[in-house]
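Quick illustration, no need to memorize.
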Amino acid sequence: MKLRVMAVDDDPAVLLLLKKQLEKQGCEVVDVADSREALERLKSEKVDGLFVDVVMPHIDGFTLTKQARLSKLNRRVPIVMLTGLDDADTMRKGFDSGVNFFLGKPFTRERVYKLMGATRGAMTREKYRYTRLSFHTEVDCTLGTAPPKQFRSVSVNISEGGMMLTSLAALAMGQELDVAFSLPNVPRVIRTRAIVVREDSPGELGVKFLNLNDRDERDLQAYISARLEG
């Protein structure tokens, strides 16, 4: 699977060079020359990694990083700061803003190769967290009313953070419920609290997992990773 990364730099020549180098590393690159456009797109587009220049008109790299960390979709994305200002103050401000890595200019194939070696795992993990896989299984649901209301649904897809369920037309956005389901080759039932967060079509609601325990979280990650890499 290709990693989808956004590269932001107001210098067209630098942006083109970075894009070519990242594409050689197997990335799909969204290149943006205007940091204002980048900020708007980060609010609605999911990326697996973000490369930002330090000095840019309108919104500099530090501010763009801070705003990315506040976004719903990309707050955990690995962020690489592009800089020719290789000094302690720049790095300190970058880390304080939420930068994870630095890539010094001028870019070379070797520098980008080493950088991707250090960041690919984190970017892949970010991709897996949001990837929805087709997944059909029966899901036991319990509403915490008095007395508790129990019913059975069927999943449509699953990600590390939640799943899409059918036959939940009676539930409202923001409503919480308990769900229990099984994964292939996992000998126990996975149980977690969930909350309704979206409606894709009538009768199909997306729920977000709220309190998966560590063991269930690892098993879910392993299942999704095996499906994506298989």
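The first strand starts at residue 3 and ends at 8.
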